[in-house]
Amino acid sequence: MSASNRPEDEIDDDLLDAEDVGEEVANDDDLAMDSDNEELVLQNDSIAFFDLPQDSLFTIAQHPVHPSLIAVGGSAGEADNAPGAGWLFDASAAQSRPVLPASYASDPSAQPQTTQLESLYSLQGHTDSINALTWTLPQGEVLVSAGLDGRIKAWKTDVQPSTGVKVTLLGEAQEVEEINWVAPCPSPSNPNTIALGANDGSVWVYTIDPSDSSNPLQIVQSYFLHTASCTAGAWTPDGQLLATVSEDGSLYVWDVWGFAAAQGLANDNGMTVVSLTAEDQRFEVEGGLYSIAIDPKGAFLATGGAGGAIKIVSLPRLTAAAPARSARGGKSAADPSTGGQILASLHSQSDSVETIAVSVASTNPPTTLLAAGSVDGSITVFDATRRFAIRKNLIGAHEEHSVVKVEFVPNSWLLTSCGMDGVVRRWDLRASGTTGGPEGGSSGLLKEWRGHRGDGEGGGVLGFVQGQTGERVVTAGDDGIALVFEA
Fold first, then answer.
1. What is the mean pLDDT of residues 213-224?
2. Within 13 Å and on the Cβ side, how many CA atoms surround 82?
3. Domains of the chain listed by start with CATH number
4. Which stretches does the entry tag as region Disordered (predicted)?
5. What is the chain's mean pLDDT, rounded?
6. Beta-bridge partner residues of 122
């Protein structure tokens, strides 16, 4: 799409009305952690910990049906020469703590004990760090581990209430040098399917058949349009389309199952329904794209990249019945149902946007919120129902340290974030003015959890899971520890 063919509904952040922009809130509630403040360094708010790993934990996954079953993976196992390993543990063993009077804290000997969690199974066989884990959907039959060695391993996971969990290695595959990410397909018609992105720019889709011992990992599709590392990917809520982005600044939305092609909505290459690259000046992000999220209603996607840039792109509306094809046998670019329209170009943060999340909050009418976390330590929240106006700008949400992940508690106004400062925080976004809990003031900070090393001291929180309710948050730390926090 050329720069002269600018859709009327494309919105640049510098064109937003002043009244649409929420307040900027500096998070001054927390003292900076340093080597001289030993009390903060030693603070541990967790109710349980898993400390078997001997080095960094890069990734964490939660079973979709049994949320207490957690998998973590990282750069080293129990032995010094173990280059990559993962573990399964049961977070339900963590004992909740009763509400205690304030005076209880004055007696260190009376402090409640933190539960040490044991390993249920060890994931072995990777020759380099495990940096991606996921369970397949919808039932979590298979755990997939992926590594910087280019391997994916499929582990059949049988959860048996009477005997615990039984894990069996089904098989492995290696088609690339390094794997950056893995995402499970939510399509009920295509269970046990995953997609992955590699450092050579390729994208692969596998279906895993636990009953086929001779060939359990079957390649469904492979794509090679990205010309640099494929940095992130996400499925649409129905699992029909897969969106991926790259360091080369390109975005492709793949018609994995041919559903769009059957409706005449595929591009001329026959593989994608949306193709945007840096050659389109309106879409160009110098330095590349590194994060992606898709609207729960499937109307748009958001991708973030270098310099704080965010692009909002419409997705095609697929129908149950295929419409008649055009004379060209393809789609009409003027038809908004085909997708690929740049709805907004946002730029409110000073450094790369490494994590994005989208949620539909429970209001009448529903409010669609988009949260973006940046390397500059800030979190910006946009209101998609108000043409992506800024609702809240949390400057220094994780002090000056990178925000690693943001994720909404499903169908709520609650946002959880973690960063390289070693802290996990929970935010309430229900108002753009003075809002939040007793600890947060106008920032909306409800709660924060400490326990990991951070502040540049060989630590930081590299990931977390929080289930469907957000009642418990389980983390993976750069310090080699997984912690369980209770809301």
1. 96
2. 20
3. 348-453+479-486 (2.130.10.10)
4. 1-33
5. 86
6. 87
